[in-house]
């Protein structure tokens, strides 16, 4: 924070910026790769942070990329991912997207039986190098956050394994289609326990073995077990770690580690969340009904989930002075508000912090995934600048611009101004 203030990346002219610890990402990916055997391929879920330099760095670190839209696909390609390093998972793939994926040899997970018919028709007239799987919903239930629990009984994702007749219909589908060589699942994300996730993965792995037994050979060769490792938003500790999750999978689904299958993972949030933060200037402070309120420049535009679901997505905040020095002193409950014009635009309610003053900065921790990288265009607020940083052995901080602050001219253009 001191370096950012000293370099003028934050201040009166630069009210809001986000930062990514590039060395931290490398370390996180190293811990991910160390936790699993070499027959695991780790595809980063692009929606968690689709910034070009972040994707490029993750590729350098040896990750693949999971995409779910034409935009994410284009971002992955531009970041250097080769077609065979990409997995396409959208639940709403158009015929055109499926055709393109099959033509380029991109791995593809089919979401439903109608999509299966489309792929079947295309596979009847042309060949493809794509690894093709079906997304299976193991229906293991809901975590503490419904919106990120994808393996509920009535989830919109995948084919529900426990619904009447589906298991038989799925097995028949594999028997009739030798090109169906994968199964896919993604049980859920934040709010799901490791046990819940591992039990969902285990069910789908067992089902893959059931398919192979029914076919009479190892037709299913790829097990894509999704992402979803929950992130600790309460402290600096990286818990649970990938090694803990891997250990749990070893007991729940040992086949993943037998070497008989190629295994793909799709971690997003856990790779980047703790390697990023948002910093914003405090513009004004006041009291209202005895409540201390600080009006800052970080609100729903960079922290939509926290603002709209404050209990479920609480994040840690720290206070810094205008020079970027950590603020100490008596902690007083304060509402830390954003700049948006709706009453709920609050990053934290009654949060005990040293009393904020105009010109101070507020830092929102663990926001490297699904925050500033996917902004919400409310009040026509510009997308924040994003800087990567490295800290040298001499404690010198080096910044690199990852995304420029959106100009007001560009904001106007995106409102439909034709030139
Ligand atoms: C979002 C998503 C992921 C990544 O989830 P995280 O919780 O960010 O790890 C992986 N796979 C699929 C299919 C997803 O939709």
TrEMBL record:
Pfam families: Orn_Arg_deC_N, Orn_DAP_Arg_deC. Its cofactor is pyridoxal 5'-phosphate. PANTHER family: DIAMINOPIMELATE DECARBOXYLASE, GROUP IV DECARBOXYLASE. It comes from Candidatus Competibacter phosphatis. The keyword Glycosyltransferase does not apply. Belongs to the Orn/Lys/Arg decarboxylase class-II family. Residues 24-273 form the Orn/DAP/Arg decarboxylase 2 N-terminal domain. Keywords: Lyase, Pyridoxal phosphate. This is Diaminopimelate decarboxylase. Residues 274-368 form the Orn/DAP/Arg decarboxylase 2 C-terminal domain. The keyword Nuclease does not apply. It comes from the Bacteria.
